[in-house]
Fold this sequence. Notes:
Strand content of chain B: 5-15%
Number of strands of chain B: 10
Strand order of the largest sheet of chain B: 3-2-1-4-6-5
Number of helices of chain A: 18
Number of helices of chain B: 9
Number of strands of chain A: 27
Largest sheet of chain A: 7 strands, antiparallel
Number of domains of chain B: 2
Shape of chain B: globular
Strand content of chain A: 25-35%
Shape of chain A: globular
Oligomer: heterodimer
Distance between the termini of chain B: 48 Å
CATH superfamily of the largest domain in chain B: HUPs
Amino acid sequence: xxxxxxxxxxxxxxxxxxxxxxxxxxxxxxxxxxxxxxxxxxxxxxxxxxxxxxxxxxxxxxxxxxxxxxxxxxxxxxxxxxxxxxxxxxxxxxxxxxxxxxxxxxxxxxxxxxxxxxxxxxxxxxxxxxxxxxxxxxxxxxxxxxxxxxxxxxxxxxxxxxxxxxxxxxxxxxxxxxxxxxxxxxxxxxxxxxxxxxxxxxxxxxxxxxxxxxxxxxxxxxxxxxxxxxxxxxxxxxxxxxxxxxxxxxxxxxxxxxxxxxxxxxxxxxxxxxxxxxxxxxxxxxxxxxxxxxxxxxxxxxxxxxxxxxxxxxxxxxxxxxxxxxxxxxxxxxxxxxxxxxxxxxxxxxxxxxxxxxxxxxxxxxxxxxxxxxxxxxxxxxxxxxxxxxxxxxxxxxxxxxxxxxxxxxxxxxxxxxxxxxxxxxxxxxxxxxxxxxxxxxxxxxxxxxxxxxxxxxxxxxxxxxxxxxxxxxxxxxxxxxxxxxxxxxxxxxxxxxxxxxxxxxxxxxxxxxxxxxxxxxxxxxxxxxxxxxxxxxxxxxxxxxxxxxxxxxxxxxxxxxxxxxxxxxxxxxxxxxxxxxxxxxxxxxxxxxxxxxxxxxxxxxxxxxxxxxx
Amino acid sequence: xxxxxxxxxxxxxxxxxxxxxxxxxxxxxxxxxxxxxxxxxxxxxxxxxxxxxxxxxxxxxxxxxxxxxxxxxxxxxxxxxxxxxxxxxxxxxxxxxxxxxxxxxxxxxxxxxxxxxxxxxxxxxxxxxxxxxxxxxxxxxxxxxxxxxxxxxxxxxxxxxxxxxxxxxxxxxxxxxxxxxxxxxxxxxxxxxxxxxxxxxxxxxxxxxxxxxxxxxxxxxxxxxxxxxxxxxxxxxxxxxxxxxxxxxxxxxxxxxxxxxxxxxxxxxxxxxxxxxxxxxxxxxxxxxxxxxxxxxxxxxxxxxxxxx
Lengths: 615, 309
């Protein structure tokens, strides 16, 4: 007997479409439900069921208590069943719009998707949304399960009309393969067993179709070889192996491979397993490879075929599904994980959001939970990748929020932006240390952060006078002054404030590169942006000075009359009033402007600069 | 409409190969990204497969983490012997922890009832051992097919500083990308067998010749019948009821835990093939033999919120 294969499936639809009932039907009619669970089901049907005294198959698959009580599915559940030919893992994804992230999660690993529609209602906007999302996630085969055919008397005309509409939808989304199947989850007709009521339907039952669909690895096997290195194995000085999962293609000993992003090349020596060496490693297998020479390979690198290596870039266009409770902010630095690599990344430009029902672009400044957008993305370091459409494993990434550690985005790389290719880094002979030497100083940035009216500009100005008197080459970058020129196009929304700080940090970095001591005075209220600013500099170059004044004191000073305006409601998004200030957790120095005079504060700052070797 | 796809000529990897590769990938990812992982080794078939996969993941090196057994003091003697032999033969570090307060108070299932016993000797003991070892990630053999609330568990499950499980804070898991970040004091539970079923585990044991405790195979054993299940008399701590006398029956276990809480089934399956054949024809789930899940629907979810594995 041929070994069983494994098909991963995502099931999309809402409670009203009969999704849980269909899944319950598949499990039940393939004999996958043990008797004791069936007995519990009969018991629970009386307590929670919606089918009167009849057994409610939907209860088999509604897991968490909260869901049972509310009668909805709020998370992805994974279900298992099998036939002689195949094992199935079903991601049971909730249908409502507020659970888009869960559906996307389920679709990301699926070989095929089953989308349910109610035959009495036909293709609805949510069918369009489900189809869009699974096609966005690169699911190759879409099955439209036209449910509740018993309610329309198994009408061929009703089914054909829905199938024709679905054809049009699939064409518009360029879905590679699709099939529509009439069925009834309630009666079981055409799910596992044929229905005698629809003699006109000569097509396969749902189960027959699912048993015959190809799995992704068969397709991946024909793609060029790719393996992200997860783990470098060095049990003894004589052995150095690279462990990872072959995500596409195949390799054998003697094959030339390239290491990306470094671009170095080598040759496969052995494929090591616990059962002895293998002659080939192919898509879907976890292996350990050794190379014939000692080139530098680390976790996060990608091994590939030399004839068809992946692209390496640091600027991309991508599609992004937002999964965070906080909105996505262009300019904010997130962590990006792709393959076995994690790097800093910024959405440099949100081109537009996508209406998930009409598939039309819509203008947007941020992405909220469950929204989809097309973005330009910049990573801190170049990464190896393939377009997602060619390879899910080397083109799909997640974004992680640096503060909450939550997974906030799922992205699909489309292509590298040509800018990175066409503008190589121009090497120059005179560098930062040469310029600093000639000035006899250590370049650095003093980053003053605090509420409006805390005394940042006053202090920065006084410190600059002292440094100037000491013969230092300095420059003061003031938030307000920058907004008259470079940043005059920016307002005070959260997104604009993030961009304001990004530009300020970039300018400060250029000046530090020029050998200057830069004094930067910006409210810079968000930790994430201060952290991102710090990361633009070499270790030891960035000194964060928290200019601490209680809100009441700062508001009392109100040197520019801004608090008054904010309280009167004529100034929006004002820090401390209707926009938050996130206190620094570990600044190099905290200056208490209530307790210290300006002269004392300047002394503290210069002393700290000496401690840090900046003076 | 496109016609249904013809069955492919090259079937690709078998489902066991695909599951094995995924599990190995999970082991490597956690070992690379966490500081101090540990493998929760509970001696049963799932732990046996888990350990085997860990060895495969890091071969030719040894797995870069110790094994931890939370010993309630009520495991079958054959399990303890198997545990010690396995660790010795493989040359792996084995940490055994029993809740010292539980020992002092003489906690056991007969005297304190299964719920309290499980809380003190299993859940609390696990927390103690994880904290004592400073472990930031613990591999466990739980599978999504075991129970309804497990079906929604992530492969990498974030636990609070109190080891609690908050279903709302669990992270979406896309592709093969796992987010292993956590704050100080938080930890991860990692389930490499998430996508395996009980039958997959047995077929894998056969395919890869994974050693398992002999209690899984039928043999004549001394048992008494309690609440419709056969309880093996593994030592003399069982308080026999009036008129109750152990009898010898040919039984085996589908699942192994504390002997007073684990029901045996009558069976003639003495080999792996026979066990798998029995499993394929089985009509009840394995957890039926476990008393801790029976109380009411949703009982596992409550235990997990309180820190049960």
